[in-house]
Amino acid sequence: MAASSSSQVFQEELKDAGERLLAPPASTPELLILLDKVELLLSRVEQAPSERTYDALLPLMKALIAPDLLRHSDIDVKVSAASCINEITRVTAPDAPYDDKQMQEIFELSVMALGKLSLASGRCYTKAVSILHNIAAVRSCLVMLDLEFDELIVEMFQLFLNTIRSDHPQSVFSDMEMIMSLVLEETEEIPLELIIPLLRSVKKGNQNISPTSWKLGENVLNKCADKLRPYLPPAVQFMGFDVGDFAEIVFSICQDASRSEHLNGLPISATGPSSSDDSLLKKASQTKGKRKRIPEKEEVPEMANGMENHGEELVWLPDKSLVAIRPKVNTLKNLNIMLSLPWFYEGAISSFDPIEKKHKVLYADGDEEMLDLSTERWMFVSKSNFSEQVGILLNSVSL
């Protein structure tokens, strides 16, 4: 009976706090006191609460996403609101407590609040530490990933590597490492924007300038070495450095990538596959999920977009392969470089539909796609003379 009475009292406190926040005090100091009380109450709510407790939470959940609160002119109020909402996210995990549009604004506010980790102390710093811990504890960063808040994730990565310091508690370092590792491991295709900040953090010279950032980047690279293996070599090349310019872990991952390249790629010769078991289709199926991504360089040999002819004469098998674009354009932000970087994916053209005027592209992972090459950006990997290679695919491969 006593436990039931205590639970009822707590539920009434939650309801009362919610009602008060729905009509918040005009005074900023009073509002901050109320938000502190709300956060304390929410920290006592367990995950998967009872139906009655959840009902008691509803006024608070509504009040915390009010525009006047989320977009308050006082930074302390916004950071405090973000901290309260992260407690709500903890309670409802793994389900998101709000719709996608609201979650975007919430995550934007949370990342803004995480920027206060650069402070040595103070109210905002303490709230930022709490927000960071909740994101790591309930893996809400994966919700960001599911909702494709890519630019926000990039911003968060950069923020972590730029703000981490030796005088931060070990928990801050561990939470950052966990969040970054989770995102990389769960990302289907890791964009260059996430890799470049990591590489910069472990570039030789930074070990003395920002040793804690170096250690964070090194730990994340170490943890995610297997996942990063296909992505690191082209990223290093894109940055214009040698693998020896970075921490030892970068050299190790790139070396492993070089050793396994023949297993993950799609080997094709100018003479075509053998007639026994080396068909292009079989090789593609053996490498499913291993599509090779190649960043566009400043000087691309034999760029083909803009060519007038896009017909059957393009059905061919070059001495290496044709690289056709998969339309995924990344805009690099906050990186000292601002450009659009299309990723090209390795594959071969297998046929042409004269009615639709589209080519069938067989990618190295076994995927097929019909593309209008007159509207796509694509290039030849090989520098061989195009005319000498015409027709080899049609004559040598049956798909």
Short description:
With 399 residues, this protein is an alpha+beta fold. Helix content is 53%, strand content 10%. Keywords: Cell cycle, Cell division, DNA damage, DNA repair, Mitosis, Nucleus.
How does this structure look, described?
It holds the Pfam family PDS5. Its main location: nucleus. This is ARM repeat superfamily protein. The chain has helices at 2-22, 28-43, 51-64, 67-70, 75-92, 100-114, 123-138, 141-146, 150-163, 170-186, 192-201, 206-209, 211-223, 225-228, 232-239, 248-264, 280-286, 386-389, 392-396; strands spanning 293-295, 322-331, 340-353, 358-363, 368-371, 378-380. It has 399 residues and is an alpha+beta fold. Helix 2 (28-43) runs parallel beside helix 5, helix 9 crosses helix 13 and helix 10 (170-186) packs parallel to helix 13. The chain contains 19 helices and six strands. It is globular. Strand 2 and strand 3 form a beta hairpin. 53% of the residues lie in helices and 10% in strands. The protein has two domains: 7-262, Leucine-rich Repeat Variant (Alpha Horseshoe); 322-397. Strands 1, 2, 3, 4, 5 and 6 form a six-stranded antiparallel β-sheet that branches.
